[in-house]
User: Fold these one by one.
Assistant:
Number 1:
Amino acid sequence: MAGNLTAVRPGWKERALLSLAGTAIFFGLWQILAISALVSKFVLPSPAEVVIAGLTMTAEPFAGATIQGHVLASLGRWAMGFGLAAGIGIPLGLAMGYWRLLDAIVSPIFEGYRYIAPLAWVPFAALWFGTGIGGPVMVIFTGAFAPCVINAYRGAHLVEAHLTEAARTLGAGGMRVMAEVLLPGALPSVVSGLRVSAGLGWQSLIGAELIVVSSGIGYVLVQGQSNLAPEIVIAAMLAVGLTGLLIDVALRFVESRIRQRWGQTA
Amino acid sequence: MSDIVFEGISKVFPRGGSAFTALSDVSLVIPDKQFLAIVGPSGCGKTTLLRMAAGLEIPSSGIVRVGGRPVNGPGADRAVVFQQFALFPWKTVRENIAFGLKCKGMPRAKRNKVALNYLELMGMAGTEDNYPHQLSGGMQQRVAIARSYAIEPEVLLMDEPFGSLDAQTRTLMQEELIRISRVNPRTVLFITHGVEEAVYLADRVVVLARSPGRIREIIDIRPIREGEGWDKLASEEVMEMPGFGHLRARIWRLLRREIQTSSLDLPKIN
Amino acid sequence: MKPRTLIGLATILVLLLGWYLATDLAGLIDRQRFPSPGDIMAAGSQIINRGYAGGTLLTQALYSLRLVVLGFLVAGVTGVPLGLMMGLSRRFEALVNPAFLLVRPIPPLAWIPLAIVWLGLADSAKILVIWFAAFVPAVINSYTGIRNVDQTLVAAARVHGASAGRVFWDVLIPGSIPMIFTGLRLSLQASWTTLVAAELVGAVFGLGKVLSTAYRDIYPAMIAVGMITVAVLGAVTTKILAIVERRVIRWRET
């Protein structure tokens, strides 16, 4: 741990107090800034106003649906894009880890694609698949794809060679080796790749929704902005952050369970 | 029939600029159901030979045939027992043993039964739901052997299978191997560093020289073994027999000459 | 040449050839939706020579590049010290953490509408969002970097009578540099992603503007030109960062 220069390490009580103080300072400054005449109401709403706006949106529809409705619409798109990315990316990564020829063929294409920011695909995605579901799903896919492949690839390399050899000497064909040796062996790496991929997918989703869409939490952000209603914008931002956090926590949990179940072995 | 035939086997590994000849023109026949041990100093190519028979390595020249058919890849007819056990850590003991049967398409109920049978044969009934990391080294190796036996291979290839076990477990495992081989004899190629182990277990012992790898001598154990009736004795009694000591000394003398031609590590005398 | 490189090159050639055949020659694919290599080259020369969406490729690219570099530098200059301080002092970390934790899960792109409310479509709005996107990885990685410095080295320095300041500059900072650079690399990546998004949402100029105008004009070849430019600039800036990193970390074999 630490590059701690103080001789005495602060205990948890002191740190809890400081955190409380920090929170209070943060919200306090925010509140003061909002109330004062320094900044117009149209720019910085007070924390209270944000909370009210958020709660209102859970009951009354805004821009077509309640805030939960929007979040669910977004989650639906995200789940589709993420599912596609994992469903294609993980087998691809494993296969590339196992068959060197495939690796040599796919790698250059993959490296090239990696350099393109996922959101740069939005125009093409919208042009090819429309702006309802198809376009955003493709953008999410582009964002979520790379970590799935990379982590599956690395995970496959971590699986010790004699395990795949043992499987082959017991009569396993290529598909079985991938499904019953590479996949379980690579699983810790794959799952942590899934976590990164989920986060990137969620971010790409929000980006796509800002640009081309007519429902979802990203759309709420845009509508709030064009209505010059920053309290709605901030409330929606917090909803986005919260949802992303929940997804991450859920996947962390899955990851730790898997690590537990299979002991220390890779 | 499942004999193993090595015909004029050579293996060259490219090492940077130069090449390293692991094996040079090795020819060897292991008849059906014979237990053959290969001893030799480190780096003499014995593991490479085994891997070629397994189909995990391709000879630079020469052909390996098993049961008359040339080997061009791994398969369930030639089971391998690895030194590091190579048990699938995410599968239970039962699932590990049943793996080869699953590859063959055996339905679940049947293969579980077969797996349990072999587990009992190994004296480990009751551990079927454990995971490998919960077992000791000796138990893991027994599961590995059971896994290979379960597919009823024609040929069993064992690469220093008891190398990572402590001396006491090793002795017990050797006795066990003899017991199962009498029940279920099959062609065995057994690689080891240990001279005593080779003499105790094998029908014939091949001494391999190093750099390049080639056969130094082949010694037939059977006349002395049958003459002194080893099969009826416990391992410590066998090792006290004069014939045993004589064979051991003879092989060790051959090995010593191989080792002392360069200064790598010594084989264990267990 | 290694076989792997050969196969890679061969694949790319095959793909390019297939693409050319399917589009320019056989017209198999609808060129309203998927540009051919010929279309792309034509669009490229158009924007390079005559300009598109308000400027030539050079001016648009430099404009975007300027925003990225500014946002990135500001994020580095603010984020790295913050991360280091949080790593050094648990008290400071406890104080600042709540605010950081609240703000961190919010994807940087989600800040775009707010930035537009605050600053309109001006440059500052984009720099703000880029700053925010690049800030977080810089902080986190600097924090991890300084926390992970081998304590034995610190002890060795102390035992030789080093003051706190000297420990900081001669042990902790050099020890943290690898992770700081990892953070900077992530920051740079985030900067580009955010810039493209911000310019797509609302811009008057820049590569994002090129992309969104091309989309509205249904001009896929120009979209492709925009994307390629973004990718190239991204690769170039990443390479420059890598060179800087290598000069700074001469003592370490990567």
Note: The two ends of chain C are 24 Å apart (CA to CA).
Number 2:
Amino acid sequence: MSDFIVEAKDVKKVLGRGATQVNALKDINLSLRGRELTVLMGPSGSGKTTLLSILGCILTPTSGTVRICGRATQGADAETLAKLRRNHVGFVFQSYHLFPTLTAAENVQLALDIRGAHGEGARAKSRDALEKVGLAHKTASYPHELSGGEQQRVAIARAIVSNPSAIFADEPTAVLDTRNGQGIMSILAEIAKDPAHCVMVVTHDLRMTSFADRVIHIEDGHLVRDERGGADAAKIQTKTRAGRRA
Amino acid sequence: MPLNLTLASRNLFHDRLRFVATTIGIVFSVVLVMVQMGLYLGFGRMVTTVIAHTSADLWVMRHGTKCFEDPSLLSANKQTRVAATTGVAEAIPLVIGFSGWILPSGEITPVFVVGSDLQTLKPWNVTEGTVQALSTPGAVAVDRSYFERLGVSGIDSKANIRGLPVSVAAVTDGIRSFTTTPYVFSDLSHARTYTGIPSTMASYFLVKLRPDADLEHVRHDLQASLPDSDVLTPAEFRERSRSYWLFGTGAGTALFAGAILAIIVGMVIVAQTLYSSTKDHLDEFATLRAMGSSNGYIYSVIIYQALLNAVIGFGLATLIGFAVVEFTRSGALPVLITPMLILAMLVLTVVMCIAAALAAVFRVVRIDPVMAFTR
């Protein structure tokens, strides 16, 4: 069995139809393993969010295969994909997407509730998750009572509370100042120390790469550079490059 | 409280203006349906109230008689045949008919005279005087609610019916006629005089059975010996009268049509507000979907919202319904709200709100979790 949590092989994604058709992803080969924080970088329209959506089981590839914890997403219907996300994935969104009418603790608990975990056990887990992100004192606060950085930390707590194998964060620091942005990245890096978790962060911000174990660059739907450990050991995927040349 | 219910209730109460508008819509709709159905029930009870207060086992009437107030007459000599039928203990003639009540001022107002043996059918809810006093010549019973119309003020008040002096010997409370023509109760012989029905005729024969008699058997025998008559149980006669007045006249159809319109209005209001509420919360539902929520979980939030709307709207509507009952209690047509009607209205309100939620559910079905990344 593979030791990768997420694997993408020869993934292509075509969006739209006819004149508006776009090849959003082209021959993507990528694997994410535990105890690794991967940063995905690229210009606007390069396919970052599409790749995140496919790896996070929100979209299925037009061709190629994606496996998460050994389960393929190919041909899965919307409910099956939702179940895969429920069982294996946690998301952190750029604009937090907290529920304004729920407290911080309830927002976190919601991630458990949709998984069928209710009651005092769920409440205790929610408090623990908020404690991990340094918000034990804000459990009863509503989103509008929290700063942007605090809201994003609640969103991270919501993403990790169900102990998913893969955590995907889409521009989690984009609307935060440097100090708060680094705070968020520190939390994500801390989560990524656990061998049971892989974390992938989409960002434009070069400063955030200092937290990464691995930095992947994407342009025009191709992975163009894959750097590990901050070194310049760029590994342009041979197969992908060959595909581009073709 | 389950978290999906918490989310539903907070979403519902978060936008107070919309919540108030929705509640008003539901209350309006439910009150309208409740009052229409209450009128239907009240009307149904009112048109059969005399039958319901008669202690006969069977009613014998001219064939084709449509309702209690039907002026059809039977030949009085049938009384002997009825009484001679095996199993019959008594056959009591009943006389009914319209007449003219002459007030002391000389004005004439129509009345509906009911004359009987004063045992099998007698005025009920007597608040002044006694039923026994009606056996004295010229003694009648009238209802308190018609005092002004009849120009009387209570016991011993005087008037004339068809030129014959009458005196109020008993006063009832709540015996109202849906035709608004006051009932006047008297003994049989005087009722014949007041209505002009001769002693050779009767409106009905009220049949009382012997304790050991089989009702169906007796009815069969009576029907066989009186082919030009109908022999009905009280329940059958009530149903015949109710059907005639409610559906023969179109009154019931109008009430039902009003109720159906009210249901449609209520559904449209709830559907519109739930749909717009769902649209406002699409980002949240997309986030839930991206987090891996099943469609069922999202539906539960919407359905809970609909149910909360239903319960709150129903509760307020029921309170208003009871106020309407009180307000119309002494009116010409009281609204009647029974426990069964309340239960039916609760079920109807819930069904209406859930059906209205379907539009919102269909909108959510099409939600794309990718929205969570793009907003």
Note: The first helix of chain A runs from residue 48 to 55.
